[in-house]
Specification:
The chain has 356 residues and is of the alpha/beta class. Helix content is 40%, strand content 10%. The longest helix has 26 residues.
Length: 356
């Protein structure tokens, strides 16, 4: 027997309200989400350019997916922990992460919070409760379930939200994380960005089910499918999932239907596996355009404000790049720091020997 999961939608592609959301989005929050989406899009564009210029080594884009990330982050409390995959910079920008700090990370220089120990796009922020990205896909799901269990044991009224793509559901950590969260009713939100591709593998080639949310009943947890390009709908279902978690009713699996409009990364060529007309179809459903049209219809936004905002963000990006260019690389000593409480004597000797 198959459980039907219709796609929940509030806004039409033209920015019209189709149905009132259960949890309405305030005008102030909508404007803050729009800013985070623009910041994500413009930062990603410049980072890709820097990669082509050979100034940084790698970049990934969240083009087309900014809406589901920024809107879901808006539904959380700042005390809630976020476990990003690697396309969720809109979430940290929503929480106030400075563009300059993000650019330092992309340059992997001495002001990078992880001192160049990982690739670019592996951001995080201890101050903002955003756990650093790790390269292996899906590993954050058990982590998010486990830390949420700790919150529950402590009686904290907080939750965790873990982002992942639909391709991560093929990893064992997906099943381990969901099962643990369900059994112990942890306050965890599993947020799947179903962007249709796991690098070059289309979703229909990844699993026999009709999607990801259909797996929720098998784990005895709540599940909802939402239009991931509709920020108002995403905000509403995420806030509902958070309230359910805080009440002690366990985890929720959210499947946000969206599309990766850019390449998987700067090492990818999507023209080799996309079919004609596919990108154009999804571009017409762009979440940034949809939210802008909604705000314009409410008299809260116009073209002049868009131009002013994008110029402001671009200026900040340009300034941050100039600062990052002049920032020295991490100190050589950082090669042997950060693993042991005290650096082993043998490691110190090897370091001194290697450096004369």
């Amino acid at each position: 027997m198959t459980t039907e999961f219709p796609t929940y939608q509030v806004l039409s592609p033209e920015g019209e309200i189709i149905q009132p959301p259960k949890f309405p989005l305030s005008d102030d929050l909508a404007l803050k989400i729009l800013r985070a989406m623009w910041t994500s899009r413009l930062v990603d564009e410049r980072m890709i350019t820097l990669t082509r210029q050979g100034l940084i080594s790698f970049a990934m884009s969240s083009l087309g997916e900014e809406g589901c990330v920024a809107a879901s982050a808006a539904a959380l409390s700042i005390e809630d922990w976020i476990y990003p995959q690697y396309r969720e910079n809109a979430a940290i920008f929503y929480r106030g992460h400075p563009i300059e700090d993000y650019v330092h990370h992309m340059f992997c220089n001495g002001k990078d919070i992880i001192l160049g120990r990982q690739m670019p796009n592996h951001f995080g922020s201890r101050q903002l409760n955003v756990v650093t990205v790790s390269s292996p896909i899906g590993t954050k799901m058990p982590h998010a379930a486990g830390s949420a269990y700790g919150m529950k044991l402590k009686g904290e009224k907080t939750c965790t939200l873990v982002y992942f793509g639909e391709g991560a559901s093929s990893e064992g950590d997906f099943h381990a994380g969901l099962n643990f969260a369900s059994v112990y009713k942890t306050p965890t939100i599993f947020f799947c960005r179903n962007n249709q591709y796991a690098i070059s593998t289309k979703a229909c080639s990844q699993f026999q089910s009709q999607g990801i949310v259909e797996k929720a009943p098998g784990y005895g947890m709540a599940g909802v499918r939402v239009d991931g390009n509709d920020p108002l709908a995403v905000y509403s279902v995420t806030l509902e999932a958070r309230e359910r978690a805080i009440r002690g009713e366990g985890p929720t699996l959210i499947e946000a239907m969206t599309y990766r409009m850019g390449a998987h990364s700067t090492s990818d060529d999507p023209s080799r596996y996309r079919v004609d007309g596919e990108l154009e179809k999804w571009a017409a459903l762009c979440p940034l355009d949809r939210l802008t049209k909604y705000l314009e219809k409410k008299g809260l936004w116009d073209l002049e404000k868009t131009e002013r905002l994008t110029q402001e963000i671009q200026s900040e990006i340009t300034r941050s790049i100039q600062v990052a260019k002049s920032t020295p690389p991490p100190p050589e000593e950082s090669l042997i720091e950060g693993v042991y409480k005290e650096i082993p004597r043998r490691l110190l000797e090897e370091f001194k020997e290697a450096h004369g």
